[in-house]
Amino acid sequence: MEIPTTELPVFFPRSKMAGPEIVAFGGGHGLYSALRAFRLLTKNLTAVVTVADDGGSSGRLREEFDVLPPGDLRMALAALCGDSEWGQTWRDVIQHRFVSDGPLNDHSAGNLLITALWQHLGDPVDGLDWMAQLVRAQGRVLPMSSIPLTITADVDDGYGNIEKVSGQCTVATTSGTVKQVHLEPESPPARRETLESVTNADVLNLGPGSWYTSVMPHMLVPQLQQAIRDSDAVKILTLNLPGDTEEGRGMQMRDFVRVLHEHAPDLRIDYVLADEEAACGQTGLATTASNLFGARTWFASVESSTPGVHDSLKLAACYRDILSDAGIPTNEQW
């Protein structure tokens, strides 16, 4: 049966009465926390997700079917699932992982469903839009690029030797110090829908998340970096908590800011959000943010009772206050 794609725009009606247009960039659990926060402030929410995962269920599906890795896209959809019984049931279903002695072991039901939609419809964005309608997502999920990507990194082994490592899983767990990350292919294309979401945004947010494999890759897609740089939207950088990712081992908060600047030297940032307790005892964050990006550093308590995990309600309160400071009204729903 042919599904009429002309119906797709009605899935995501946009109205300024429903809050500002917010675009959040990232992947995995960091983006999940940010989306859970932003959905309390607006119904005009878009997640732009990295597509370089090469491990687990996503990596297996990517290799077998030559598709975008669906895992981080699925996580974003789960974060946006509606609060009704329907939405919460589908959230649990798409997050479900099979346990067996056969080939389905450790596959996510949502990954399989997304891949099936892609094969049926022939287009990644169409498939994600139909998936969003199924779970009654309060927002849209879009890929960072239209093709699956490979992350590579220049890594210092601790003895002054630089080696190149390849693959998101390898980069994320390397025992060395990451100096620079790259994408293969070097200049991947961005989706038109993704670029349009950035152009129309009132607010752009980067982070939190695995800095080199979830946050930095957005700056390595030339069309996407250009759209972010050219945008007049309020730009927020949400910093990680200590110890929340392996690849950030040994980095202080000012280092995350420095790394972003090295990968996107022409980028302007308006606010850098940092956990106030985590920032205690660290120096130079506010100065680094101001000198490199012209940004104001916003200190607040954002950690949950689980160490290293952001509390979405606390994040939502911080984002609300930041946007109020920037003169952007929100649609508060909590």
Could you write a compact summary of the structure shown?
One of its GO terms (biological process) is regulation of cell shape. The chain has 334 residues and is an alpha/beta fold.
Which architecture name of the largest domain does CATH use? 3-Layer(aba) Sandwich
Mean pLDDT: 92
What coarse outline follows from CA principal-axis ratios? globular
Q: Low-confidence parts lasting 5 or more residues at pLDDT below 50? A: 1-10
CATH class of the largest domain: Alpha Beta
Give the beta-strand count. Answer: 10
Major sheet: arrangement of strands: 3-2-1-7-8-9-10
Based on secondary structure, the structural category is: alpha/beta
The major sheet is characterized as: 7 strands, parallel
Helix content: 25-40%
Radius of gyration equals 19 Å
- Count of helix runs: 14
Percentage beta strand: 15-25%
Spell out the CATH superfamily of the largest domain: CofD-like domains
How many domains? The number is 2
